[in-house]
Amino acid sequence: MPTERCDAAVAGGGLTGLVTAASLARAGFEVVVVEGRERGAEGDGRVSAITVASERILRRLGAWERITGAASFRRMRVWEASGGAEIRFDARAVGAEHLGHIVENRVIAEALEEVVESLGVAWSRPSRVAGLELGRGEVTVELGRSPGRAEGRARVRSRIRAGLLVGADGGDSVVRSLVGIPARGRDYRQLGIVCSVRPERHHRDTAWQVARPAGPLAFLPLPEGLCSIVWSTARGHAEHLLALADDAFRRELETAFEGRLGAIEWAGPRAGFPLRAIRAATYSAPRVALAGDAAHTIHPLAGQGVNLGILDAAVLAEVAAEAAGRGRDPGGRAALLRYERRRKAHNLAVDLAVDGFDRLYRARGRPVRALRNAGLAAAHRLAPIKRRIILHASGFAGDLPASASE
Ligand SMILES: Cc1cc2nc3c(=O)[nH]c(=O)nc-3n(C[C@H](O)[C@H](O)[C@H](O)COP(=O)(O)OP(=O)(O)OC[C@H]3O[C@@H](n4cnc5c(N)ncnc54)[C@H](O)[C@@H]3O)c2cc1C
Questions:
Q1: Domains of the chain, CATH where assigned
Q2: What span, in angstroms and rounded, lies between the C-alpha atoms of 366 and 19?
Q3: Is 312 in the pocket of ligand 1 (CB under 6 A)?
Q4: pLDDT digits over 326-350, tens only?
Q5: Which of 159, 222, 349, 353 could form a disulfide with 226 if both were Cys (CB 3.0 to 4.6 A apart)?
Q6: Cis omega before residue 126 (within 30°)?
Q7: Which residue out of 16, 160, 217, 301 has the highest number of ligand 1 atoms within 8 Å of its CB and is therefore the one to mutate?
């Protein structure tokens, strides 16, 4: 049987892969997504803080209006534990209505799946990229079966030929390994505990984060006064917290959050995620581009991982469409290097800032604490610095794709 050919194959149907597939399909490319998990696989309870720039990209793709239960937040408050300095941000400082939205990852994925299907994107799932062979003007992707059955219209192929392969297959990217792109990693030796909670007092549309010596604890606003917490802490401590009975966990959480929203009246199921940073040396190889966590996995303390992946996806599709529009090869070296130039420096800057923040807040000793507090207090008073931080947090930094414009 001849192997089917498409313009682009996307390895990974996570949020980065889905935005890549939708953006490429909207630009007129024929796309196949290869995903290791079955359709309708359980969500993992994670939520994401979606920036205004990402919201615009999702809106242009027709995904945003399909998303239900997104909670907007207008303010952020970040402070150092045990009476340290505090910095507050308000969307009004940049003339905006909100700073972003908190949305369940599963809900965003479902909306994007509907969009890619409406755009005629084909699926191969459950199947995994298992090998690659570079040919003239194309790459052949060898697929291995994942455990499970193929369902519905999804078909499980054994090979796909494509002009471009996008590795959006997450931090442990097989595509990255198969093309031999080296990656440097850092294990934070922390778990991020994720859980929905109901505090006694309303969150007031504010994203809260306390910097604790073992890692940050965030309360992200959800509808109906609920919050989603991300508690990053040393692995041993996290395992202890995960094993606690419900009421004991709620008490520990209340204390760690310094009672800012009163008692924690209810807490849902908890899940722990190992936290690490991964930095790919390059984002491209012949006929292959890396995007999202496959290219850069970062600490969740600034809530930027998904957003960087969405920007990668939008820029990659924009670059491919520009190349095709000029009669050039969208999967060729020039287009892929252009993508890398537009995305890598920005992703690296965010990664370094987030990593620096983690180190700064975990450093102990009175002089460091005094310095941190002085820095935070000064930043709080300086409106231009705050405006810059707000614009970065809203996703308006780096070489943005046209789809992120108003
Ligand atoms: C606790 C925690 C909280 C976070 N909070 C935020 C936040 O508030 N805001 C934010 O922006 N980011 C946040 N992040 C980061 C964010 O979750 C990730 O950056 C994002 O999910 C990465 O998406 P991705 O699609 O690139 O990779 P993944 O989500 O890892 O998706 C990869 C996909 O590829 C598939 N796959 C893997 N191997 C293969 C293969 N060989 N063949 C085919 N398919 C394959 C997998 O099944 C998966 O579906 C958080 C992370 C953690 C751990």
A1: 4-70+103-183+276-363 (3.50.50.60)
A2: 46
A3: no
A4: 999 999 999 999 999 999 999 999 9
A5: 222
A6: yes
A7: 16
